[in-house]
Specification:
By secondary structure, the protein is an all-alpha fold. Among the domains are: 51-97, no CATH class; 99-147. 53% of the residues lie in helices and 0% in strands. Helix 1 crosses helix 4, helix 2 (59-70) packs antiparallel against helix 3 and helix 3 crosses helix 4 (99-124). The longest helix is centred in the last third of the chain and has 26 residues, at 99-124. The protein is elongated. The protein starts with 27 loop residues before the first helix and ends with a helix.
Length: 147
C-alpha cells in the first residue's frame, strides 16, 4: 500500500473549542470483511485515484467515533468495545459519500495481494508438483469477497 505524507495546520482552536484529530487506518481485509458481512455491493468506478478524503461527518458516524474516543476514559472496555465501534465506523464510512471509492480501493488492493500470495505459494512449492485446482482451492475463500 502506498504511503501518503500529509502536512496540515490548525487555524482555529481555543481552550473552549479545542481541535481534536483522530486517525483510523483500515486494512483492505477489514474493509472486505465489512463488505462481506453486511453484503455491501461495490459499484464499478474507473476513477479511483484518491486515497484520502475530507468531508462532513454525519451524526451516526460522529456518534460512533465519539464512543470510540470515550473508551480512553474506560481502558478496561477497550478490548471488548473498540473492535465493535471500529467496525461500525468502517460500515458508516462505506455508506457515506466516499464509500464507493473506499470499497474500490480495498478490492483493488486485495486483488494485488491475492496475486502476490499465489505467486509466493508457487515459489515456496516450486520443487513439488501440484495441480492448479489445489492453488485455486487454497485461495477460494479470499476470492469469494470479489464475486
Amino acid at each position: 500500500m502506498n504511503v501518503i505524507q500529509i502536512t496540515a495546520q490548525v487555524t482555529e482552536a481555543t481552550p473552549d473549542a479545542p481541535y481534536l484529530a483522530l486517525k483510523l487506518e483500515f486494512s483492505p481485509n477489514q474493509i472486505l470483511e465489512v463488505l462481506h458481512d453486511f453484503e455491501l455491493q461495490v459499484l464499478p468506478n474507473e476513477n479511483r485515484k484518491r486515497a484520502m478524503f475530507v468531508s462532513q461527518m454525519d451524526s451516526p458516524l460522529l456518534d460512533a467515533v465519539t464512543r470510540l474516543a470515550r473508551l480512553l476514559d474506560n481502558p478496561k472496555d477497550i478490548s471488548a468495545l473498540a473492535p465493535l465501534y471500529t467496525e461500525e465506523i468502517l460500515y458508516r464510512v462505506s455508506q457515506g459519500q466516499n464509500g464507493d471509492i473506499l470499497k474500490g480501493i480495498a478490492i483493488e488492493e486485495s486483488s494485488i495481494r491475492q496475486i502476490r500470495d499465489v505467486i509466493e505459494h508457487i515459489m515456496d512449492n516450486y520443487d513439488r508438483s501440484f495441480r492448479i485446482e489445489v492453488v485455486a482451492a487454497i485461495f477460494k475463500d479470499r476470492l469469494l469477497f470479489l464475486t
